[in-house]
């Protein structure tokens, strides 16, 4: 347990409080949107106040057999590319790692076998006064910060206590990010399964309709009704065209699942809008309200809104006969609202049965996140789709390297 920290005299020549520095480290990890940069910033605080030359971090990968370097460009250059990864068995061992997860100084163990077996080029930059700062959380060892000094460094009891507390703060952040990353991956997989189910149902319906139509054409052939057969061929051609368009949109949706774990909700919306313009050719404008660039939309809500956007844009392409459309993202402090409006021929919302697949899909998806979807007429007489859901606070940033499960 960390006891009261007194002020200390840092290498830069002015007094600071260890407790204040722990607050700075914690704030760097909590308030930044970028995981890797905020982590490197937090480690830089430790490096600066202890006067270390470099402070590379090594985090365990998901398999637990490799340590992966997390550091800025300058630190990477100092340790060399040959140390971008290291085998865990060479370093996760006593005395460098202990059950209490306390920091360990190399100067106290130079006569130990674990020091002698380390690679000479590793010892060259780590140094005989280097300190291993353990990173841990929830009873799990996650890696370590290696504090490297140009000269002797005394690991006093007060410094041990400070570093032990800093290791817990770093560990809690890394553990939280890793768990969040896995949750997002699982969420993306679940979205892929849902979309695959919807694709199966939609295609089954359209293929069944094609089969019935082919059956009717066979009867026309038997009756030798050339005029009706010609009309059936025309309708069949239209049905095949619709099926091809549907497949195209659904495949784009499946491909987009791989991107659900990357970027904010609004970044994903921008990507969909840009792709629609390029692939369909209908002018599509994006309007964002105040706070639109916030990353407060959690995966569960953002994923369902993106599916509504995909379905609505598919309808714009396939059914609306629109010449232009607009997508609006309108966030508030507690809710997120998505609007898709076109200038097409529109429709009577009361004439659309709830059983119609696209409407049912959008409705069910929004219900999963306690949201609603409404269809009506827009200001220009076309179709207006409005999807709205409550926000649940969720933080998001650039992931740590994939090898460490971020």
Describe what is shown at a glance.
The protein has 406 residues and is an alpha+beta fold. Helix content is 49%, strand content 17%. The longest helix has 67 residues, at 157-223.
Would you report the number of β strands?
Answer: 13
- Terminal-residue CA separation: 28 Å
- What is the quaternary state of this protein? single chain
CATH topology of the largest domain: Beta-Lactamase
Return the CATH architecture of the largest domain.
2-Layer Sandwich
Reading side by side through the largest sheet, how are the strands ordered? 5-4-3-8-7-6
Sheet bearing the most strands, described? 6 strands, antiparallel
Number of helices: 11
Unreliable residue stretches: 1-6, 11-15, 393-397
CATH superfamily of the largest domain: GAF domain
User: What is the chain-wise order of helices and strands?
Assistant: EEHHEEHEHEHHEEHHHEHEEHEE
Radius of gyration: 29 Å
Mean pLDDT over the full residue set:
80
How many separate structural domains? 2
Structural class: alpha+beta
Report the top-level CATH class of the largest domain. Answer: Alpha Beta
Residues in helix, %: 40-55%
What share of residues are in beta strands?
15-25%
Please state the overall shape, judged from the principal axes of the Cα atoms: elongated
